[in-house]
Amino acid sequence: MRKVIYSLPNCLPCKTVKARMFRLGEEYEEVVITKEIADQLNIRSVPTMIVYDGEEELGRIAGVPDVGMLTNFLKGIIKDEN
After folding, report:
1. Which residues are CB-neighbours of 13 under 8 A, at least 6 positions away?
2. 2.10.10.90, 3.40.50.300, 3.40.30.10, 2.60.40.4070: which CATH number matches 2-65?
3. Domain extents in the chain
């Protein structure tokens, strides 16, 4: 399972989400979003985190969820996988 955060370099909300993922001990990839990526993946706001299994999208969350929401989102995806 791969977690990708689509963000912009000077985006304060993006930095907040990355800090929360670090706090949870979650590994992730960071991709600097471009218009082409946003259009291709239908991303309308940053940060957006998409969780993949291979090429399949398992779920996505946009904005700045608090630690509890982020934990529940990730647990829900893991639960659905089992």
Report:
1. 46, 47, 63, 64
2. 3.40.30.10
3. 2-65
Strand partners, 67: none
Q: What is the pTM of this model?
A: 0.91
Q: Taking Cα atoms as reference points, which of 25, 36, 7 lies closest to residue 70?
A: 25
DSSP labels, 29-65: EEEE--HHHHHHHT--SSSEEEEEETTEEEEEEES--
Peptide bond into 47 cis (omega under 30): yes
User: Per DSSP, what are the bridge partners of residue 6?
Assistant: 31, 48
- 54-74 confidence digits (pLDDT tens): 999 999 999 999 999 999 999
69 sits in which H/E element: helix 67-81
